[in-house]
Write a structure and sequence with these properties.
By secondary structure, the chain is α+β, with helices and mostly antiparallel strands. It contains seven helices and 15 strands. It has a six-stranded antiparallel beta sheet. Strands 6-7-8-9-12 form a five-stranded antiparallel beta sheet. Strands 1-2 form a two-stranded antiparallel ribbon. It is globular.
């Protein structure tokens, strides 16, 4: 029943009642806290206990922007299944998390609204894996996006994650040592080779299936996290569209490495000229179509997406976000989403799995692709 007029407000079970004269103030964490002690108080004097209530996740179907998206906020149609190929099915949502060293990991992959409506499988794939034990362990997060409008896109993405996982797992001791000792050159070239070999296996698989390589390929983006608490180096590498962002001091920084930052000799099968000049002029006339030397010779295939690499040192309080294009593009086009994620993730502690899923699923009209994201909170 409601409290009587003039009575004290109810106190949640297990919480300390506020002291006399302590007017409750709303806090940024969704609970209440008492005012700070007046000037002149000493550390030996009793202080008011802060009551902190974890902010609940947003409601299902939460959206930002001018209006709700066209599609339903929840899954509708399931992908078509074959009785003898049930292992080929892809779950609508994958959610994972861990805590190693000074970092807390949250990872999610969600089928986009468009695929949910049409009953298509999720083209994004997600792999989280730990190799090694103790402080020598190395955590890998791999995410891949299959080619749009191809029947085997989800299989190609899953194979890309599996093959890079196998390659990193076999070399994890050397990779972890290179990260701890800051051997950036060896690390970059080694990861470049692993990515090239993994995507090369996709091209071989396409040939075995009798399809064009462009129909059975995937963008691949990865993150390496050492479990050693003394090592705060976080390594991103991969190819393809997506985003790499860092939330520091309440502001998002776009730290996706540019093509121009990817220096050094290209590995066979990768590397392409920049899409703009050093002065910033876009090369609008060059469509990337090479004229055959004669009508009897086919034109060479266009180059693959360039390899990208960044090794950065995390600071306490940072939040690092790696994502596919499905989550990288909405904040760039709708600032309100970036502001929303700032209020949700600019906290010392990482959200729980359910809250992270809800945050990453915040919808924006006009963006209906699969979303895959991995966020790392630094203690």
């Amino acid at each position: 029943m409601p409290p009587k007029p003039g009575s004290a407000p109810a106190v949640p079970p297990g919480a300390a009642a506020p002291g006399p004269g302590a007017d409750a103030l709303p806090s940024t964490t969704g609970g209440f806290r008492t005012p700070p002690p007046p000037p002149g108080d000493t550390a030996d004097e009793p202080r008011e206990t802060i009551l902190s209530v974890v902010e609940p996740p947003p409601p299902a179907g939460y959206h930002v922007g001018s209006g709700p998206p066209t599609y339903d906020p929840e899954p509708t149609a399931l992908p078509s299944a074959e009785p003898d190929e049930l292992g080929d099915l892809v779950a609508d949502t994958v959610l994972d998390g861990a805590r190693y060293g000074t970092s807390t990991l949250r990872a999610v992959s969600v089928r986009g609204d468009s695929a949910r409506f049409r009953g298509e499988p999720r083209r994004d794939a997600l792999l989280t894996a730990r190799f090694g034990t103790g402080e020598q362990a190395l955590v890998l997060v791999a995410m891949a996006t299959g080619a749009r409008a191809t029947s085997g896109a989800h299989r190609a993405a899953a194979e890309a994650c599996r093959w890079i996982g196998q390659a990193v797992g076999r070399s994890h001791e050397r990779l972890a040592d290179d990260i701890r000792t800051a051997r950036r050159g060896e690390l970059k070239s080694g990861l470049h080779r692993l990515v090239d070999r993994s995507l090369g296996r996709l091209r071989a698989s396409a040939a075995e299936q009798g399809v064009e390589p462009e129909e059975y390929t995937a963008g691949l983006r990865c993150l390496l996290l050492p479990a050693d608490p003394e090592c705060r180096t976080r390594v991103f590498f991969g190819v393809g569209a997506g985003g790499l962002f860092r939330l520091r001091d309440g502001e998002w920084q776009d730290i996706e490495p540019r093509v121009a930052d990817t220096t050094g000799a290209a590995v066979v099968g990768f590397g392409s000229p920049p899409h703009e000049t050093p002065e910033g002029d876009r090369l609008t006339m060059d469509l990337g179509i090479t004229t055959p030397p004669s009508p009897y010779e086919p034109a060479p295939r266009p180059p693959h997406a360039p390899f990208r690499f960044r090794a950065s040192v995390a600071r306490p309080g940072d939040t690092l976000l790696l994502c596919t294009g499905g989550l990288a593009e909405p904040p760039r086009g709708e600032p309100e989403l970036a502001e929303y994620l700032t209020t949700r993730w600019a906290r010392a502690e990482a959200p729980g799995l359910a809250a992270f899923l809800a945050d990453a699923s915040a919808r924006v009209k006009g963006y209906a692709d699969d979303r895959t994201a991995a966020a790392v909170w630094e203690a």
